[in-house]
Automatic annotation (TrEMBL):
Keywords from the named record: Membrane, Transmembrane, Transmembrane helix
GO biological process: lipid metabolic process
Family: Belongs to the steroid 5-alpha reductase family.
This protein's GO CC annotations: membrane
Domain 3-oxo-5-alpha-steroid 4-dehydrogenase C-terminal: 107-223
InterPro entries: 3-oxo-5_a-steroid_4-DH_C, SRD5A/TECR
One Pfam short name: Steroid_dh
Cellular location(s): Membrane
Gene Ontology molecular function: oxidoreductase activity, acting on the CH-CH group of donors
Protein's name according to its UniProt entry: Steroid_dh-domain-containing protein
Length: 223
C-alpha cells in the first residue's frame, strides 16, 4: 500500500502534480477514525453485553488516533483511495470483532490476552516514539531519512509491527472467535510483507554501518 515512505512523490512522478493525494495526517485519520467510531457505538450504545475484545479494539484505534494527532510528525502525502480502502477494512474489522466476540471467556484467556495486548500496545507506542525522534520538528517538506536506532530497531526493521501483532494476538485470545484469528492471520501476512519491503528500502538507503545487512525484518533473530 503506497503510504508513509512508500507513497508516491513528485520526484518519483517526474515532477508531475499528483492527483488524489491528501496530507498524511488527514490520510491517517481517514484510516483510523471510522473504526474508532464503530467500536465506540457498538460498545457504548448498541450491544446489551459488550465484549472485552470489543473494548480492546476501541482502545487500540483510540490510541492510533491519539498518535496521529499528538505524536507522529508528517511531511508528506497519502493516496486518498488507499486511505479509504484501509479505513473501510478497519471499520469492518472493528464492527465484526465487537459483534462476534464471545462475552464469556476464562480468566486465564482474559489475563493472557490483556497482558499481550498491553505489552504489544506499549511496545508499539515506544517504537513509534523512537521513529518520531527521527523526524525533527516536522515543519519542513525536506525528507531527510535517518536509520532508526534503539529498542528492537537494533534487531529488526519494523519492531512497531511486531508489537502491533502482539496486540492483535491479545485481542484474538480475548475474543475467542474465528473472525479475530483470521484478522490476525491477515494482519500478519500484510505486515510481514511490509516489513520485508521496509528492510529492503533501508538497505538501499543506508550503508552497512548504519543498517547492517544481517538485520531481520519483523521477528528478532527469526524473520
Amino acid at each position: 500500500m503506497p503510504y508513509s515512505k512508500f507513497a508516491p512523490t513528485s520526484a518519483s512522478s517526474k515532477g508531475k502534480k499528483l492527483e488524489g493525494m491528501v496530507p498524511s495526517k488527514i490520510g491517517m485519520l481517514i484510516i483510523y477514525v471510522p473504526a474508532t467510531i464503530a467500536a465506540f457505538i457498538f460498545q457504548f450504545f448498541y450491544l446489551s453485553t459488550p465484549s472485552a475484545a470489543g473494548w480492546l479494539v476501541f482502545i487500540h484505534f483510540l490510541k492510533r488516533d491519539a498518535e496521529v494527532l499528538l505524536l507522529h510528525k508528517y511531511s508528506g502525502e497519502t493516496v486518498l483511495n488507499v486511505a479509504q480502502i484501509i479505513g473501510t477494512s478497519y471499520f469492518i474489522t472493528a464492527t465484526m470483532l465487537c459483534i462476534a466476540s464471545n462475552t464469556e471467556i476464562s480468566i486465564l484467556d482474559s489475563k493472557l490476552g490483556m497482558f499481550l495486548f498491553g505489552i504489544g500496545s506499549l511496545g508499539n507506542l515506544y517504537h513509534h516514539y523512537l521513529l518520531t525522534l527521527l523526524r525533527g520538528d516536522g515543519k519542513t517538506n525536506t525528507k531527510k531519512y535517518q536509520a532508526p536506532k534503539h529498542g528492537l530497531f537494533e534487531y529488526v526493521a519494523s519492531p512497531h509491527y511486531f508489537f502491533e501483532l502482539l496486540a492483535w494476538l491479545g485481542i484474538a485470545i480475548v475474543s475467542q472467535q474465528l473472525t479475530a484469528y483470521l484478522n490476525l492471520v491477515s494482519m500478519t501476512l500484510y505486515l510481514c510483507a511490509r516489513s520485508y519491503k521496509s528492510n529492503e528500502w533501508n538497505r538501499k538507503k543506508f550503508n552497512e554501518k548504519e543498517w547492517p545487512s544481517s538485520r531481520k525484518n519483523l521477528i528478532p533473530f527469526l524473520y
